[in-house]
Design a protein that fits this description.
two-stranded antiparallel ribbon, 236 residues, mainly alpha, 69% helix
């Protein structure tokens, strides 16, 4: 792979991913301050769970589900479009994997906004539209089966779709570069979730268990997962 093309694909992805549609939509709704301090009450604790991300989930919580859905679609598009552009412009090697990966990193740590962005799920699915759109449905369905039907945990189902990207890309391509992309997005997602993980740990030390399904209720995908989980008798 040529170093010039590597840099081009990575820079294009990162700069596109750094665009914060949550902030732009909040400004459009004339509520730019709405994303700055979003809190969720935690039953059994005097402290609130502070949502520190700036993405579709935060937009849905602070501005409403319609704005949140619009943010999610735009966040997916900002990764999908440059990924597809690089894929067709440079078809000789999978440079578009770098575009999608850098786009997710830009979404989580946007250079335009003090490196404070979203958590990356919309960015992952946006990248998959440009890499292998079948993976979106295959890993989501597989994650639902593994998380809900087998592990009986809707939160694990949410994460399992990302985990399954690794074996999926090996099955589809037998190319370690695609497998590496699957590993990369999982690592970035976990790193982006560190603020939330620390809060969950803090509540646990207080003897309070924060319910992560409350966050799932804020997104269309999360609400759909919860409905499916109830059909299986999980998280009634």
């Amino acid at each position: 792979m040529g170093i010039t093309y590597i840099l081009l694909a990575s820079v294009v992805g990162y700069l596109a991913g750094s665009v914060s549609f949550a902030r732009l939509i909040a400004a459009l709704a004339k509520r730019p301050e709405a994303l700055d301090s979003v809190e969720l009450d935690v039953e059994g604790s005097a402290s609130a769970f502070v949502v520190t991300s700036q993405g579709a989930t935060t937009a849905s919580l602070s501005l409403g589900p319609r704005w949140g859905f619009a943010t999610m679609v735009l966040d997916m598009a900002k990764i999908a479009i440059p990924t597809l552009a690089i894929r067709f412009a440079l078809p000789q090697e999978p440079y578009h994997l770098l575009t999608a990966a850098a786009g997710m990193a830009g979404h989580v740590w946007p250079v335009y906004h003090g490196f404070r962005g979203g958590r990356g799920m919309s960015a992952v699915y946006g990248g998959l539209w440009g890499i292998d759109w079948i993976a979106i449905f295959a890993t989501f369905a597989g994650g639902m089966v593994l998380g809900i039907a087998v592990l009986r945990d809707v939160v694990l189902a949410y994460f399992a779709a990302l985990w399954l990207l690794v074996p999926w890309f090996w099955f589809r391509t037998h190319d370690l570069r695609f497998v590496a992309y699957g590993v990369f997005v999982n690592i970035i997602f976990v790193l982006g979730m560190i603020p939330e993980i620390k809060q969950y740990q803090a509540f646990k030390k207080q003897g309070v268990v924060a319910d992560p399904t409350e966050v799932l209720k804020l997104t269309a995908m999360g609400r759909g997962m919860l409905k499916i989980a109830r059909l299986f008798g999980v998280n009634k």
